[in-house]
Known about the structure:
Elements lengths: L7 H11 L2 H10 L5 E6 L6 H4 L24 E7 L5 H9 L6 H6 L1 E5 L8 H6 L2 H11 L5 E5 L4 H10 L16 H11 L6 E5 L2 H14 L5 E6 L8 E5 L8 H11 L4 E2 L6 H11 L1 E5 L9 E7 L5 E12 L5 E7 L6 H17 L4 E11 L5 E9 L6 H11 L2 E3 L4 E3 L7 E9 L8 H10 L11 E5 L4 H4 L1 E8 L2 H26 L1
Parallel strand pairs: 1-2, 1-4, 2-3
Antiparallel strand pairs: 5-9, 6-7, 6-9, 7-8, 10-11, 10-13, 11-12, 12-17, 13-14, 15-16, 17-19, 18-19
Helix pairs in contact: 1-8, 9-13, 10-11
Amino acid sequence: MSILPGSPEEKLQFQQLQAKLPDLFKRVTKDNRVPQTIVVIPSLSMDPRELSKISGVHHYEERMLYMLMLLRRAQTRVIFVTSQAISPSVIDYYLHLLGGIPSYHARQRLIQFNCCDASSKPLSQKILERPMLIRRIRAAIGDKERAHMVCFNSSNFERTLSVQLGVPLYANDPAQNELGTKSGCREIFRNAGILFPYGFERLRDQHDIAEALNALYARKPGMRRAVVKLNEGFSGEGNALFYYGDLQAFDAIERKKKILSMLPDLRFEAPQENWESFHQKYQEMEGVVEEFIEGKVKFSPSSQCRVNALGKPVSISTHDQVLGGPSGQVFMGCTFPAHKDYRLEIQEAGMAVATELANRGVIGRFATDFVSIPDENGGFQHYAIEVNLRKGGTTHPFLTLRFLTDGAYIPETGEFLSQNDQPKCYFASDTLQSENYHGLLPEDLFDIAIYNDIHFHTASERGTVFHLLGALSEFGKLGMVCIGDNIQQATFLYNKSKNILEKETAKLKANLT
């Protein structure tokens, strides 16, 4: 008898599967030669309307191809499932990065499935709609006592898939996902005792928005702007700015009416967004209004943590985010580590959040984003902005570095050291895009990288690792992780790689004309 999705029986069975994670975690961490199977489901199980704002988003499943580097462990098998087939040359590219393991040996332990489905549905939903595919994945897993499933973010789809495959999910229970919404994370910050912007959460419609904006202005007359956020926005694209203008002549009642009439003029981070669409989504998923942190000099660091399968919070890394968009709220990339002047402060605040989440039973990876401004005492004020209760744009660059070098993050200094104790840094981006890249195949990109010697060298542990290659030909978009011995070198490699790609592709376009 099949178990109905979302039923009490499914939730009970899911909890029983999750109870197996601690023992599996202990076995694997004790000895990396222990046989295991990792089922990778890189589904972006989020609101399709928000995801549609991102160019080439259906190729973002490829960001989790860094998981192939786990094939360095000779007894590890990886089952990788995608919406569409991935080019064999892209798989070869990742397998080539495995130091000390012949590609043929790794390929024997890699099993790929795809749904032959390019629709906007989340991958996990597509899999659930294909019972025969589930049956083939289940058969490929083999020993379920030595297997687990990983995903980009957990939703009800992933919970159902975990139960149907019969393996635990190393991610947050979907029942706790509310903690990662814009409203939920404000409550986490409050309980963790860290600084965050003044504002209001769990707002439902335009009247709640206007009331909150009015209350902000009453608290701080003359403030220039505030930010309005959808609860489930992605990469800052669900944010909008409200500009107050001159409202000092209005009393509280008239001011609220004026603010209400100004809402259609919100300035949205996503270029294709409009008030009607934004308000409809706001009514469905709710949201927050909070003060916009002003400052002539601002930084946007983040702290990455995880709660392991034993329930222990662990600091993973810190980053400085590279932001863009109309008002600098859209994630464009990151540098690792965060600036030495505040990285340990960011790590400490992030761990306060991680401890609070661990106390609530959360497991898996997540990031806490901040806005930091210098204070009058020569230090910084760090305002917690949001928690991404999932893997994010800072996850795959760091794990790429870790898997390539077998190095370790040092919490005491906030640095990453390779096995020979060499500090390693990187500049990473998911949003390198150019009209000249259209029509470029992954093989063409590899040729350019090799001819110009910008590819990653395993001996020196420096160079550029490319990702998001499925979006290259169609959208002219790709990602890069540029690894160096210091931030300056990593930034130089990024700019060099970018300039070479522009020069070489412009030359190709010119030759065609």
